[in-house]
Amino acid sequence: MRTGRLNRVLLALVGLLLLVLGGAVLAVGLGAPVPSWWIHTGSHDVLLTRAERTRWRHTTWWWPAVLAGLAAVVLLALWWLTTVPRRRRLTEILVDTGDGDCALLRGRALESALAQEAVQQEGVAHAEVVLRGRRTAPTARIWLQLEPHVDPSTALNGFTTQALAHARESARLESLPAEVSLRAVKHRAERVT
Fold this sequence. Notes:
Layout: H1 3-29, H2 50-54, H3 62-86, E1 92-96, E2 102-106, H4 107-120, E3 124-133, E4 138-146, H5 152-170, E5 178-184
Parallel strand pairs: 4-5
Antiparallel strand pairs: 1-2, 3-4
Helix pairs in contact: 4-5
């Protein structure tokens, strides 16, 4: 599952949980009848009684468990906050038209064109492209799957001199730095007789 889809699912679940709990608390606080499964008996009941707040105070495992749970929540939230901005794609590229004006090129269009041209190259089975950076200075991250008997240096050289050069020239970019990852397509072992 990709990070964007995972973010949307997690946010939807957390939002739904908070909406249900907040709505239930609000409804009971405004005088709605208390459901049988509700943890409190009336609208003037406190959230935690003194007995509930001090019940686990003298046990040795309670505070380490609470602190470990809170630390895990904080670490997960920090991880999520650091991955969201880092994986952001470039949505548009500023192209100099040569007459003093600029045009906007969609990032997905350039990614798609670059991937299609890479796949047309001999020996490349599949290509994925992600553009990042600034609108005026994009960078590319490319994953190429190579056919089993292709020389990786030849495939990389062909990609940089053809597809990457065409993308840079068509978008009128001074440079298009790229990080290319190569891997071979998995295949069955060939039987030699």
